[in-house]
Amino acid sequence: MFESLLQPMTLGPTRLRNRIFNPPHGTTLGNRGVVTDDLIAYHLARARGGVGLIIMESMTVHPSYGFEEAFLYAGSDRIVDGLNQLATRCRAEGTPVFGQLFHAGRGVRLSHDGSRPLSYSASDVPDERYRVVPVPMPNDMVWELIESYVDAAGRLAAAELDGVEILASMGYLIAQFLNPETNRRADEFGGALENRMRLLREIVNRSRERIGPDKTLGVRITLDEKTEKGLPAEEMITVCQQLEADGNIDYFSVISGSSASPDGWIHVFPPMSVAPGFVADDAARLKQAVSKPVLVAGRINQPQLAADILDQGKADMIGMARALIADPEFVSKVAAGRTEDIRACVGCNQACVGHRLAHFPVSCIQHPLSGRERVLGDIRPAASPKKILVLGGGPAGMKAAVTAAERGHQVELHEQTGRLGGQVNLAEALPGRAEFGGITTNLQHELQRAGVEIRLNSRLDADAVRRITPHHVILAIGAKPRRPDVEVEGTEMVDAWAVIDGTAVPGNSVVIADWSCDWSGLGVAEKLARDGHHVRLLSGGSVAGESIQAIVRDQWIGVLHGLGVEMIPFARFYGALDGSAYFQHMTGGEAIVCEAVDTVVTCSAPRADRGCDWLENLDDLPVSRIGDAVAPRTVEEAVLEGLRLGLEI
Ligand SMILES: Cc1cc2nc3c(=O)[nH]c(=O)nc-3n(C[C@H](O)[C@H](O)[C@H](O)COP(=O)(O)O)c2cc1C
Ligand code: SF4
Asked: Is 582 in the active site?
């Protein structure tokens, strides 16, 4: 099965053992521009997992863009040793390594000291997403920049990387030069397409001269920037054809989206609302126009989809960034015919993109070992196997049970309802969020594989616990909704969880009092608006969904806007009386009054479930609490705490 994925191939002079590559993704595991042991451990895990090729994260090349500490810096020889170690160790596992060179141009958020940074671009066209006005790059600076790219390519070759990729995609600097909307120059780098592509051609052709014929040289491009003023696909295709005619390029890697606008940005890190494999047709279009191999990435998280794209001739290699963050062993599982064991990425963006944009090492809500390979280490057999009783079948309990069982403990998991999953079951019931339920499916499969005994509809009392004779009890019983401490009279008030699970049906005109600013407020608003209710969403933060990953939130807000949901931020809920709901503006202090309200739906702070407190005094039995049963947070913390406890116990 999936033979096409496992076919070897060559990319320029580099031989690859299969068709799956790890696309460049910033990990925040570097330190002040250089490779660390954590970054080596991260990539080694993917190389050991069988991936055909690793293309390392964007490395900056020139001081005019080097503000973010999170980036590796290929503008200095300091990078060479670490890169060499990383590539040598990954190659020893069978995986060649390329490096990607990058300049964001006007797409700059931070300076070294917190002041607003100076950014450079082709022209002074303002950026919609970062809201910066760039400085047009002086002509001599452009030529200096070209030299910097070439020197950086030389450093990657000196570090014995197998190849170099030039990032010309996603609306960053080279794309800003290519696009007439952002390039208004009158010198040899502006005007006709021939001039706008000069920067890229000079970089590619001179880099080839520097690195010689024994290294692979590729370019990453965007065919569809998914934004109003993006570069037209026809022009990008002409650019690729010109690069091919120049004779120095070995492959094209296609991605979608742009950093320059919120709608474009959503497609760079596509959340679960974006269709799986959505870039494949762009890749197919480019493949018709060029003869060099075409690589593609974008929400490809299942072997079947990846194989279909190859089998239909739409691309030559499949990139999986988040799929390999969620499961570094994806490829070896395919090779071993164990595809049902793959922990598929659900496109939540929470711990991968979310961590990266907040300047923390990337990880995965389902696989917290990602990005923590050195900190948490391997799953080692327990010194003395014990009998472990886990109460609660949400993500925290499931992960603790799996990890403990994988270490050789005998584990029994009891869940009081008839279904594993906890709050994930609510989140997956929301419109467009079904894929989130994959978290439960994946954990359930891991439980079975690890040999955990699962008891559903099981409520234990002290005698029942004694009969099991556990050495250790894990309390992962989650959280419960909380009724807000406000006065409500003459107006119905129900909890969001009850609306989602169908036990409460609100009236026509709904006000959502959204303390949590997470998926529950946005999700219940969408569900009710789609069901025909009139919905007002009043959130206790600067924006609805403030607590969730920005791309997921931004996309969701667009959906709610389209459904006519009225959204009011900074609203503190005060109560409801006879069909009016009362809020206070959290900074201005004025009253916000919503009239003609049938039902107030509350997304209030949940409360840790203390239901099994008695266990903590039972026969000196060691008891550990994890996840929402300690304090309500998200799936990420639940799974992380489950893993940590499972490793310690
Ligand atoms: C945390 C993170 C950081 C990324 N950083 C880069 C980068 O440095 N350079 C780049 O070209 N793409 C970057 N990307 C985009 C990925 O290469 C890839 O195109 C995108 O994640 C879609 O593929 P996926 O659905 O397989 O994750 C990044 C993606 C993620 C998740
Ligand atoms: S955190 Fe979510 S999007 Fe990121 S890799 Fe894990 S499952 Fe995928």
From this structure: no
